[in-house]
């Protein structure tokens, strides 16, 4: 009896697997095909060598293209492949750890632990693959131990691969299952990546995990079930930060990047199917992973290849859309010569970054060129004038951070990273609704309304989204909030909750008397509001 319990789905496996569509009660249906790839949950396949991780990866992604992160480490190249898996109606991002599992001269997962750890840190679930034919292997136990230590947030699903060879040998699959149970991650499932047997059971095991994870992740999809706002309070600031360093050629981006990366572990590799320049670099800073968007290509570019080949404005635009934080690099000497902070192309990029709701950090590089007797006044002047001019160029966001560096001398690089992380954290902020409504009462009494009678009645104020912080004011009655009112609310939010320097969005919604009878009622209707805000033309982007 016990043996049978431990092997989930053996019977169905033996019959080639039931049709996909196992029903899991208690969850609303989700149309996975409408979720953006970046919003899909991530599942990493782990396991000792030769258990068939790549075969399972290939089966899950079908013929779709995989991204390959090439991670050279001590002369051994390891590939991390990532692709979009399709299993029944489920879609998820799957990572094949085959390339980084093993180092010949040291124990399993040892040398490359940090790469694996960062893959696990960004994953939501793990498939722990073992070999049914070989039974429990000492290295399986090691992988289990390693997982418990490095990814305690993940409870893996244990899958016994190569099960097809055992199903007609009486009792052997059950005894393999009993052995795998000793890994301590619950009942294993029997699958065969080669033949596809057991896939319905993998589906049945994953589905109840993937659905709630999506319900926790607002904004990445729309579904018919109304979300409870309590699910929205997820701190995403610990998710990997995507940083784009942009600017015109020769302002010192590559030099700055090298200076930033000097002290940090760098992983560089091409993404398959993309151009040579589309290389992804990541590094650790204060315990968080920072991904550099479209920048690593500069690291190895020779002098001859520079100039026109350097980052064009078009490339910058593309980077903007992929990044969370944009670091716009300017050249201090050019600023002095041109007597203005930004050239047209730079203004375009800065404005675009803010319009797209990204966090912007401005870096004025080559400050070392403004040292010396006859130049020190320029030095002071640049420090004073650039922040003022940026404020004029982007009036809707006050306090955009400006950092002065000399990439050549390595000065200012820690300040740059601290500022990037700080801006990112603000950008990810989530303010609890109760707190916001206490704040609203105070702030509304602080505002001097020209005409008391025409004062808009904000009944309820809530944050519907982070990255960037987006709020909805529910207004009752005919009087809407004017642009001045919204600017006032934004300014107050910024001051009272330390949200300066990042774009903030405030939208307003009319509520009827009936709708506004209580906070709980409004809260219940928020799922709908959050969905509508995405394409709301009336939204106001201000800070
Ligand atoms: P990119 O095209 O923006 O990547 O610019 P590079 O990093 O290749 O730099 C262009 C030139 O400016 C190179 O000759 C660098 O040595 C020089 N450079 C970069 N940063 C600084 C700096 O802080 N001070 C000085 N004096 N020169 C710099």
Automatic annotation (TrEMBL):
Annotated ranges, domain GTPase Der C-terminal KH-domain-like: 430-509
Keyword Repeat: yes
Signal peptide feature range: none
A UniProt-annotated Pfam family: MMR_HSR1
One biological process term in Gene Ontology: ribosome biogenesis
Ranges of residues in domain G: 42-162, 243-366
GO molecular function: GTP binding
InterPro entries: GTP-bd, GTPase_Der, KH_dom-like, KH_dom-like_a/b, P-loop_NTPase, Small_GTP-bd
Keywords recorded for this protein, A-Z: GTP-binding, Nucleotide-binding, Repeat, Ribosome biogenesis
Task performed by this protein: GTPase that plays an essential role in the late steps of ribosome biogenesis.
Alphabetized HAMAP family for the sequence: GTPase_Der
The family this protein is said to belong to: Belongs to the TRAFAC class TrmE-Era-EngA-EngB-Septin-like GTPase superfamily. EngA (Der) GTPase family.
Protein name: GTPase Der
Organism (species): Psophocarpus tetragonolobus (Winged bean)
């Amino acid at each position: 009896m016990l043996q049978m319990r431990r092997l989930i789905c053996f019977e169905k496996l033996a019959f080639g697997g039931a049709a996909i569509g196992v029903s899991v009660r208690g969850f609303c249906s989700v149309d996975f095909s409408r979720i953006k790839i970046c919003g899909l949950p991530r599942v990493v396949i782990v396991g000792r060598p030769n258990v068939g991780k790549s075969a399972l990866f290939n089966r899950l992604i079908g013929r779709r293209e995989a991204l390959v992160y090439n991670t050279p480490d001590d002369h051994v190249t390891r590939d991390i492949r990532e692709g979009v898996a399709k299993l029944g109606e489920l879609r998820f991002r799957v990572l094949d750890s085959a390339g980084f599992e093993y180092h010949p001269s040291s124990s399993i997962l040892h040398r490359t632990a940090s790469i694996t750890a960062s893959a696990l840190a960004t994953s939501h679930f793990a498939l722990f693959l073992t070999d049914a034919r070989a039974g429990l292997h000492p290295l399986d136990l090691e992988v289990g131990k390693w997982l418990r230590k490095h990814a305690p947030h993940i409870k893996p699903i244990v899958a016994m691969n190569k099960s097809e060879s055992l199903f007609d040998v009486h009792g052997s699959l059950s005894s393999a299952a009993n052995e795998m149970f000793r890994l301590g991650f619950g009942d294993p499932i029997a699958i065969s990546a080669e033949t596809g047997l057991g896939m319905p059971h993998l589906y049945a095991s994953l589905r109840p995990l993937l659905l709630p994870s999506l319900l926790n992740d607002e904004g990445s999809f729309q579904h018919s079930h109304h979300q409870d706002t309590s699910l929205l309070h997820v701190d995403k600031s610990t998710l990997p930060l995507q940083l784009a360093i942009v600017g015109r050629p020769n302002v010192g981006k590559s030099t700055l990047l090298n200076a930033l990366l000097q002290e940090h572990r760098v992983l560089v590799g091409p993404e398959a199917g993309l151009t040579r320049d589309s290389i992804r670099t990541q590094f650790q800073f204060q315990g968080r992973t920072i991904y550099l968007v479209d920048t690593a290509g500069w690291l190895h570019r020779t002098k001859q290849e520079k100039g026109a080949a350097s980052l064009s404005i078009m490339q910058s635009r593309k980077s903007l859309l992929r990044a969370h934080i944009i670091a716009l690099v300017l050249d201090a000497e050019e600023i002095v010569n041109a007597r203005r902070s930004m050239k047209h192309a730079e203004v375009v990029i800065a404005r675009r970054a803010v319009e797209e709701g990204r966090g912007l950090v401005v870096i004025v590089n080559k400050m070392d060129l403004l040292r010396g007797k006859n130049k020190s006044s320029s030095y002071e002047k640049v420090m004073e004038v650039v922040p003022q001019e940026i404020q004029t160029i982007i009036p809707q966001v006050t306090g955009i951070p400006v950092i002065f560096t000399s990439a050549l001398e390595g000065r200012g690089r820690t300040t740059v990273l601290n500022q990037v992380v700080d801006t990112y954290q603000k950008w990810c902020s989530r303010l609890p609704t109760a707190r916001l409504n206490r704040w609203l009462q105070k702030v509304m009494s602080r505002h001097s309304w020209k005409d008391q009678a025409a004062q808009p009645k904000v009944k309820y104020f809530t944050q519907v989204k982070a990255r960037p912080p987006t709020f909805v004011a529910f207004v009752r009655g005919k009087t809407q909030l004017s642009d001045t009112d919204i600017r006032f609310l934004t300014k107050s939010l910024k001051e009272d909750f330390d949200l300066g320097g990042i774009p903030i969005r405030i939208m307003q919604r009319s509520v009827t008397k009936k709708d506004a009878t209580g906070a709980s009622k409004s809260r219940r209707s928020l799922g709908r509001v959050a969905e509508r805000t995405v394409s709301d033309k009336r939204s106001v982007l201000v800070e």
